[in-house]
Every structure is written in C-alpha cells, then in structure tokens.
Amino acid sequence: MTEQATGSHHPQPRTRTAAPAAPAERMTGAQSLIRSLEAVGADTVFGIPGGAILPAYDPLMDSSKVRHVLVRHEQGAGHAATGYAQATGRVGVCMATSGPGATNLVTPIADAHMDSVPIVAITGQVSSKAIGTDAFQEADICGITMPITKHNFLVTDADDIPRTIAEAFHIASTGRPGPVLVDIAKDALQNETTFSWPPQQDLPGYRPVTKPHAKQIREAARLVNEARRPVLYVGGGVLKAGATAELRILAELTGAPVTTTLMALGAFPDSHPQHVGMPGMHGDVSAVTALQKADLIVALGARFDDRVTGRLDTFAPHAKVVHADIDPAEISKNRVADVPIVGDAREVLADLIVAVQADHEAGHKGDYSEWWEHLNFWRNTYPLGYEVPDDGSLSPQQVIERIGQLAPENTLYAAGVGQHQMWAAQFINYEKPGTWFNSGGAGTMGYAVPAAMGAKAGRPEATVWAIDGDGCFQMTNQELTTCALNNIPIKVAIINNGALGMVRQWQNLFYGERFSNTVLHDGAEGVPGSTRGVGSIQNRGTRVPDFVKLAEAMGCVGLRCESPDELDKVIAEANAINDRPVVVDFIVHEDAMVWPMVAAGTSNDEIMAARDVRPDFSDGAED
Ligand SMILES: Cc1ncc(C[n+]2csc(CCOP(=O)(O)OP(=O)(O)O)c2C)c(N)n1
C-alpha cells in the first residue's frame, strides 16, 4: 500500500448510496467491473479503449447507469475526472488501456495527488502470464504511479474485482482524498467469476483519524483568545471537508482575519469584511503581511506550501502555530506546529467553536482592534489593481474581471497555469465553495479545458468558464471535440497574449528581458534589432493557430475580442450560447504582469506591490 495519508473522511457524499446486497451471479470479470462501478455510484467515466481494457468496454456499452465519455487524450480523461470530482464532491473516474494509455494518465494522477482530489483511475494491463515479459503495450503503471497515488492495486484474479473497486473508492474519498489506481490484467477481465455486492473490504491499518483531541482543541482556543494578531490560514482541506459553514461561524465568533489559499478560494466569501485576501507569491499584500506579522497562525487544512511561505526561515517570525490537518504527515512538515491537531476540518472547527465560546463565557476574549487597524491600512493602501493599456488594446485583468462580473450566478471556473490563472484568482470574486478549480500543487498547463469538461459533465446545470492561456490551451484543447460531441457546452476564454506569459514575466524581471523561447506568435520579438513584434500585440504577424477557426473545426462557436469596446458584448454573446461549447479568443496586451509578487526564494517581507513599489511596513504592527 502506498498509503501516504491516514487522515480521515469527508462529510459530503463522495460516492452515491451503495446498492443493496444482491445474490451472487456468474459473469466475466469485465462485467463484474461494470457492475461494481454501478454499485459504488459512478455515473460518469472518462476514457479511451485499447487492447488490454477492451473486455471492459464491451459490457460498459450496455450499462444504463454509467455514462462513458470518449475523450481525445488520456490526459484529458484524468483532468476531467478531477474536474468532475471537484465540482460534485464525488469520486471522479477515468479509464485507459495498458502501456501508453496508462502512462498518459500519469500527469493528471500526479496533479490530483498534489491537490488531494479523489479520483479512481482504471487501467487495463497485459495478461497476468505476460506481465514482466515486455509484452506489447506493457508498462508497470503501478510502479510508475507508486509515489503519486494514495494507493494502487494490480488485479490478476477476476474474483478480486468488486472488493478492489469498493476499496479504491473508499480510499480515494476518505481521509485526505487522493487518486487511486486499479490496474487489471486482461485475463482477469476475461475470466469467469462470481459477482456479489457489497464485497468484504479488507484494509488493515487504514483508519483515518477524524475526531480531534480535546486537549489540543482547548489549547488552540486558549491561544486564539490570548492572541493580539491572529490569522485563520485556510487551505483546500476546508473545502474538501465541507467545513465552510463552520469556518464562517468561527471567524465571526472570534473576529479574526481570514486568508484563503489558491486551493481554498470560495471557502470564505471574498466579499466578507474579515477576508484579507489570498496569501502567497501573487497574493494580496494584506494577506501576505497579515501572516508575516501575525502572533498566531491557525492553519486549517493548509500545508505551508513554499508558494505561501516564501523563504521558509523568514516566514511569520513572530507567530505561534496551530496546525489542524487530516493528514498527520503534513503537521510540522515545513513549519513546526506549537499545537498540532489531527482531524477532519469540519470536526476540528465544530469543536473549536465550542471551546472558543466557552472561553468567551469565562471572560477570555481576544481583542484584535489594533490588529484590524493595521490590516485595514494594508488593505486600503495596497489593493489589487491593474493598468489599462493606453494603446487601446485589451488588458487581460479587465477581461477576466468582466467575465466574473457578467457571469450568471453559480458559475464555475477552471483555470490553466500561468498569469491568467493568477488573475483569475485575483479578479473574480469567489463567494461560494466549489466554484473554483485549478492545478495548485502541480501547476499543470493544460488542466483548464478538460477539468472544465469534467465539471460540466458532473454539474450540467451550471455555467462553466475555463480561463486559459494561449500556451495552456494548445496542450489539451482537443477535448473541445469531446465536449462538442457529448453535449458538454463549456465556455473557454483564451487570454491570448501571444506568449508563455508567466515565464516571460520571470524573464522580464530576472533574466534581463531576454525572452528565450516564450513567444508563441510569429513575430520576431526577443531577437535583437528586430522591429516587429516589440511592444503591443497589434504588431504581430499571422496568428498561428487561428483559435477561432480551430474552435469552429472542433464543433464549437469561435469568437474573437480585440478591444475594450467589444468586451461586454462578446462576453454576453458567449454567455448566451448554451447548446455548444464556445471559445473566445481575447487578444490582450502582452506586457501585463502579475502583481503583487514575492520573488521565488525570497522572503515575504520583500513583497512587491507592483513594479518598483515596495510596501512600507514601518508601522510597527508586530511591536
Ligand atoms: C506542463 C507544463 N509545462 C511547463 C510549465 C511551465 N510554465 C508555467 S506557466 C507557463 C506559461 C503559460 O503560458 P500561457 O498558457 O500562455 O499562460 P500565461 O502565463 O500567458 O497567462 C509555463 C510554460 C508548466 N507549468 N506546465
């Protein structure tokens, strides 16, 4: 067992109600696999068939409960499973054949592992007798995915299929969620077996701890009420635990500021007066500084990622740390916790509310009024902002902001990786849990389109916008064909700056503006002496590919927007199309940069609010 997380469980239904016990029936392993998927409540599987998994595809055709979505690349199947899982709270499922089919799943599996997303990947394997012979399309996918799965199984006996599927779904969705791979040899799929449900599960040693220790909770409550500069540092674990209502109660009870990480946007309303923003490399000055100057950090389902802490040995030097996490391996991994709490975030928060309240009743309540003066000063002095280009071209931040403002209620957003991802995090308001999906831990370009597809397949009633970069889009856009053919009408905004923008930003700031291999258009920018392509996008030559034509070729509506005057009209047009996927090619200025920024490897104290703008912290907040 490659178990890395023994934490616990999740209150939302991740799998649908198990089928009632059925009498044993004779059938093939493949039929037993499909029956097992039906029994655990899997309603959607994203995948591509091939030799080793082919026996499973035959009975899949007859299932009225499991819908199979035929993707165009297995990477798309994996990210779609992730998007589905994040949008529905259930386990996402993807399927592939042996060898290259399975290895194409490696990136999305690694991605789901980094972001603790519950998916089950089912792969065909060569026949059990051929395993280890370098048979055609053989790859040791269990070996390959060992460090990037919560657990994986190799099944060589048809009789083991129902139990393995039940265990895989259980492991994926309980404790700290994560990806589980089930690799099934072809002969196990072909052989006769007996199917009965529910199977007896056998997972010795897997007992995630959900209930926090009362003494630790009391200690945490005491620190909260004694602190003068506390911060609730909220990570994705709070969303996964379905603990957002409890978070709000605790926040309002204490009056402490709240910061939600990139993985936790929507866990606490952006508009709430106690929300001080997102921390991290491109976080709000107020959130980064709040953590930096805090005397107490209460980390809830967050993991002190390097993008949040900046240079670790200078992170939050005055703070005591309460660290609550379902996964004991996270606690004190990067920052030593003064009060470690192992437990499910919802249970931790529920218990903390009671303990804090009891302290209040006993006359101990924290006074954070002076802290709020500092927080409000930072918030008001260094708000997020952007410049509108004076050459009449579109500002990428404005495009993203307007998409958020014009979107129907309950719109879901998936982002790629790069500048557009950071702007989507900064300039769209996330008010509700489960509305924002991105590749936070792995930073996987190509995540947005297939993740949006998975989210829309799981939540067909919701509007789903993918906010993508022109670089990212070129990695996985073929899944738009899948969307067009399977009635999955997502909307894609390509924030087309003609460059690998985030990398270009680093070249701009740290490599003396030498733009090595980051230009995606055919202009000659970056070449010394060139007069073409420098400055604005209008100087570019032929656009390759033409995203509007590409979208149309894939059965989508393709729109283009090049100026601020057209912006609202084009977004409204895209919002009005619900029978087909829509792609909007937003041609934006290429020089925009993401601010604020803490340069990699530097201290959060060195945050830059904008180019050449270093916030002034000489207000003695931590004195
Ligand atoms: C699969 C993968 N390859 C490379 C990178 C490194 N990388 C990070 S951001 C980025 C540029 C993304 O460009 P684009 O999609 O156009 O987005 P922009 O930053 O311009 O908004 C690259 C190459 C990555 N994160 N993922």
TrEMBL record:
Q: What cofactor does this chain's UniProt record say it requires? A: thiamine diphosphate; Mg(2+)
**Boundaries of each Thiamine pyrophosphate enzyme N-terminal TPP-binding domain copy?**
27-142
Keyword Glycosyltransferase listed: no
Enzyme Commission designation: 2.2.1.6
Q: Where is the composition biased (Low complexity)?
A: 14-28
**Boundaries of each Thiamine pyrophosphate enzyme central domain copy?**
217-352
Keywords linked to the UniProt accession: Amino-acid biosynthesis, Branched-chain amino acid biosynthesis, Magnesium, Metal-binding, Thiamine pyrophosphate, Transferase
Q: What class of enzyme is it?
A: transferase
> How many cofactors are bound and how?
Binds 1 thiamine pyrophosphate per subunit.
For the Thiamine pyrophosphate enzyme TPP-binding domain, which residue ranges apply? 416-586
Q: What single Pfam family name could you report for this chain, choosing any that match?
A: TPP_enzyme_N
Q: Which reaction does it catalyse?
A: 2 pyruvate + H(+) = (2S)-2-acetolactate + CO2
Per the record, the domain of life is Bacteria
Entries under Gene3D superfamilies matching the protein? 3.40.50.970, TPP-binding domain
Pathway-wise, it operates in:
Amino-acid biosynthesis; L-valine biosynthesis; L-valine from pyruvate: step 1/4; Amino-acid biosynthesis; L-isoleucine biosynthesis; L-isoleucine from 2-oxobutanoate: step 1/4
Name the family. Answer: Belongs to the TPP enzyme family.
PANTHER family from the entry? Answer: ACETOLACTATE SYNTHASE CATALYTIC SUBUNIT, MITOCHONDRIAL, THIAMINE PYROPHOSPHATE ENZYMES
Name it.
Answer: Acetolactate synthase
Q: Which organism is it from?
A: Actinacidiphila acidipaludis
